[in-house]
Design a protein that fits this description.
The chain has 359 residues and is an alpha/beta fold. The chain contains 10 helices and 15 strands. It is 37% helix and 20% strand.
Amino acid sequence: MKSLNKTRAALTALAFVCSGAAAVAEDAWYPFPVEVTHPPFEAQSPRTDQDYVALDKAEQKWRICVSIPHLKDDYWLAVNYGLASEARRLGVAMTLFEAGGYGNLEKQMAQIRECIAAGDNALIIGAISADGLTPLVSEIRAKDIPVIDLINGMNGTAMSAKSLVSFRDMGFQAGRYLVDKHGAQGGAAKVAWFPGPEGAAWVTAGDEGFREALAGSPLEIVASRHGDTGEAAQSQLINEVLDEIPDVAYIAGTAVTAEAAISILRKRKLNDQVGIVSYYFGPGVYRGIKRGKILGAPSDLPAIQARIAVDQAVRLLEKKPVLHHVGPKIAVVNAANLEKFDLTTTLAPKGFRVVFKVN
């Protein structure tokens, strides 16, 4: 993995994302600036910049199965939007399964087996567990069915391709932004950190990056709590920490954490004393930044990741050249650049409803 000291790279990415040429349209979202990891599937492999160019159309109506952890928040709704939009654009069929939460590994495995048994041609997985699906993925690959690792990340090399960014970088960018933001004030400050559900690869990576960014700074993580990315779960964790440590200066964590923290701080009359940072983006984070309630957040452009995964699946099925390990450049969003940020890379459009099938 390349160096995490990437503030300049993040700002460059934002310039690309905000440009008219990179604006995502239903029929022409590409070329899009990405980072390609080569050799693929190795954390320490170098990355190079490239423009991703998708296929115009699939050669036939392939059937693609998608399995994701849940649809309980706007992040995965944006993923659903990207998947469905790209399936329609390419002219392939898609069936989406959601497992209902990060505690439901067995359910995700059962859903994957169901769609493979139905004869789908390729599989895209947003994995609940970094290691829990490895035997199943190996079993599916033995049948010569392409498997694309989407967003969350799985360990090993059994998959056919990856469409994801480094969540270590996401955590690092959020932490670096917070350190820089606090630098103007100076002095030591306490941070409560909520990285997400324990055991998920993206959470482990994000936690490592965030902690690395804060190392040696005046900011100290005084509490860290893992939990499902549902509003109720995150709200409970935030309240527990604030009951124990009333002088926290910053709350940092998932998009759901950031959104829940706004109302909790208001009720506790702490909204002018505690700053909020998310380490990924969503509609609630967008509104929070716009209203001055959230300081900022990096975006991993989940709708673009989803589109790339569908294109990768079709390329693999049609034996066409494919980038095996690729992800869009991370963009750091705050009040200063919010209005220029291309939201269609990151959020589902207003009024978008969940799409389980594209025929």
